[in-house]
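Aim 2 progress update. The chain analyzed this quarter is reproduced below.
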Amino acid sequence: MMTDPIADMIARIKNAALARHDIARMPASRMKKSIAELLQREGYISSVSEDEVGPEKRKTITLTLKYAGDRSCAFVGIRRVSKPGRRVYVGHGHIPRVLNGLGVSILSTSQGLMTDKEARQKKVGGELLCEVW
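Predicted structure tokens:
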């Protein structure tokens, strides 16, 4: 049994980037797909697709990682902020800037998942899921 599927997703993305793999696969969920689509929209990954694999036809999410010409990954780091043992909630006035605005935070708000910039514009706070830089 997995207690933190988002942390598992982040670990799979990190490991694939460190090993210079082109793709990262993980079990599918709506939350993971939303996070992956945000990462794609912000330019950290190339594409997101949902597939059915294996004889059981289990749904998986396939992320295509983005690399520069020297095979350096599009992101330097990604980390989980709010964890099952310690949830981190922030108001719209206290959303942290990642690397002085060069990175992005992903928040789970009452209006869905959004980046820190979108949350500040809409003046909504929420649970700070992860940071990417």
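The chain has one domain: 5-132. The helical segments are 5-18, 30-41, 116-122. These observations will guide the mutagenesis experiments scheduled for the next reporting period.
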